[in-house]
Amino acid sequence: MTKSNGFRMVISFLTLLGMFISLFSSAYAAAYLSPPPRTITNAPSADTIAPAPVLALQAERGTAPGTVKLSWIAPGDDSTAGTAAQYIIRYNSEPISEDNWASSSDVVGEPTPSPAGSLEQMTVTGLTQGMIYYFAIKTRDEAGNISTISNTPRAVAAAAYSTYLPLVLSTSDVPVVIPKTTVVLDKTTAEVIEDISADYTAITFTQTTQGLNDVQVGDVIVSEPAPNAPYGLLAKVNSVTTSSGDVVVGIEPAALDEAIESGSAHISQKLRLDQGTTTFALPGVSTIASPELNDEFYIELQDVVLYDDDGDLDTTNDQIVAHGYIRLEPGFSLDLEVRHWELKNLNFTTTANETFELEVENKTDLQFKKEKLIFEHHFEDPPVTFMIGSLPVVVVPVLRVYVGIDGTAHTVVTTGIEQQATLTAGLQYRNGTWSPITDFNNEFFFHIPRLTADADVKGYISGELDLLLYGLTGPYAKVTPYLQLHANTNETPWWVLYGGVEVPAGVKIEVLSHQIAEYETTLIDYKIPLIEAQTNNPPNTPGNPSPPNGSIIYDPNINLSWSSGDPDGDNVTYDLYLEAEDSTPDVLMTSNYMTTTFNTGGLTPDTDYYWQVVARDEHDAVNSGPIWTFHTASDLSSGEITVRNDSNGVEIPDGDTTPSVSEGTDFGSVDINGATATQWFRIWNDGSDFLYLTGDPIVQLTGCSDFTITAQPGDTSISPYHNSVQFLVTFDPTTVGLCSAEISIPNSDADENPYNFTIQGTGTITNSGEITVRNDSNGVEIPDGDVSVNFFL
């Protein structure tokens, strides 16, 4: 054996050994290591699990004009797991629900979904600056499953219009000099004050005190608040007398610069709801008080009637109504400086962080100017008291809130505005000159107005802060943010909505100085246009009501229908108001309704119903239809009408236009020479409730006058379960030929009212003679109409 052969044998052996090991390993693995084979019983099922809804969509004002920033947590593909395929984001000027999802506007540029649990963000652009928008999201997976709707937060599109006015304010310290002619009553003396006369000319003390012994005619007496002098006391003494143990001091009003030779003071205070008492609140006005809100006032308005033309609050179609709220964090600052018996410097400012929302609805057709005090609060528990040396200065701030409207409108107008403002406003008196103090930042947000015709309306809600010094009005300021809507259908644009702020302020000076005249000015007078109408015509006025206005209805489930549309071809939706026994219906049955037919559901018998349709196009232009009415019968029916030939019982279908002998609707041929044909018909009620015949006359006939109803039914109500009444039709032809007419029976059957069918008959001459003229001598006939002369004839 050679080496080469041996080598080949070794290779062959190793090859065989490897093959054996490989086969053995495969068999062993198959027998002992591989899992058992699976039995597949069903094919994989289709994806039917929709993504979970977004539950915490957040919206906030963006940084650039016309933008809103959105953020949310990604929901996933199958419920809360995986990654969805697409976000669908929409916005609207009203809260979004499934009802108005389809009509809401699509956002462009939604982000591609991230895995479930990720933070998603996007900025919506192209919005109207300052307008309030609502947003919502749905999520779609790769199989086309769509989630339910998210929550629907609102935000204001960032606006470029805001205002800032700088603050200018200064104070100084002056050494205090209180003259000997100023007497500050001690606590013991103040507590024995029994009465201050209403005309502020006399003070009665129940007894004399050491303090009273020091009072001389010509002195100025000053007191802190006391039980019978809650606002303190600042008065000049004219006389001092004693009577039956009482001490009566004759007085006249004094000013601070009569009580102080020199001195200055500064006080600044933030006002709290729990510092006093609310002395007045109009019906519909409420305040919210809680520990966390004590630093602010939240005053809510719900259906506050500013004007009622007939004085009857139960009739609402002649009212001007306000809704909304005002949130205030009021405060004030007061600086005084007196030098050598003269008021040299005075700074008064009111400060407020203020948010307000006001919606005004006018239902009148007149010119008006109405302002109402809706809320008043006195901060007198306790009064604010500060000292100039030993002299107490007593201040009681009073907050008053007014709502007003000024203008003219010739239709229903509803509009609203929000404003957020931080301001300081007041007056400064220095060296004989008054000047304003202003520090003002604000932003406006608004609702698109809804109106149908001309209007020029200014609505406002204002907070006025007065400082009562010793009970007399001193400085005051009134912050009046407002909205103004100007609309004229003959102008372009036909309406413009403005936002503005007015801040008048003044000082009634008598309590401060007798040497300076009273002063009043307007610190801020600011107005800007917020939005104007696009080139758009409002929808057509709803009309053609069914049932017709003033109808009597016998069906408890009627369909209300109307006509409308839009001259620009816009999509139109409808709000339907329906109310029983109220000629100014304000019960909303449906909103954003897409069709012009609405089923009322069950109605109440023997009731007057009033209804109105308001049409709105896709630009939010509105047109209100007139108020229509109908009356439901005392016994609403679901009777079922059938009319039959009374002689053989053959039914005549409703709407039948093919008369037949078997139905009795074909009266056949009738001689015009005095012959007539008659036919009895029977009206059956095959329903489970009364059937009412509502016509006048009961059975009505139109068409050929040779037909007449010669016997009307004997009753207008037919009992249920196959009861009936008869009527008789007579055919008395006057001319030869076919004669047709229509029978109409108005009734309470909802789907066969009126019940109509056609009848016919033919007028004939059946027994007429045949004339012939002949020559009597030879019997030759002379033709009718012969004009020739013939010897043989």
Strand content: over 45%
Number of helices: 4
Distance between the termini: 163 Å
How many structural domains are formed by the residues? 5
The main pleated sheet reads as: 8 strands, antiparallel
Radius of gyration: 46 Å
Give a brief outline of the structure.
With 793 residues, the protein is mainly β. It is 6% helix and 49% strand.
What does this structure look like?
By secondary structure, this protein is mostly beta strands. It folds into five domains: 58-160, Immunoglobulins (Immunoglobulin-like, Sandwich); 182-259, Beta Barrel (Ribosomal Protein L25, Chain P); 268-530, no CATH class; 543-632, Immunoglobulin-like (Sandwich); 641-764, Immunoglobulin-like. Helices cover 6% and strands 49% of the residues. The chain is built from four helices and 51 strands. Strands 8, 15, 17, 18, 19, 20, 24 and 25 form an eight-stranded antiparallel beta sheet that branches. Strands 16, 21, 22, 23, 26, 27, 28 and 29 form an eight-stranded antiparallel beta sheet that branches. The longest helix is centred in the first third of the chain and has 31 residues, at 3-33. The chain is elongated and about 160 Å long. Residues 1-44 and 161-171 have low confidence and may be disordered.
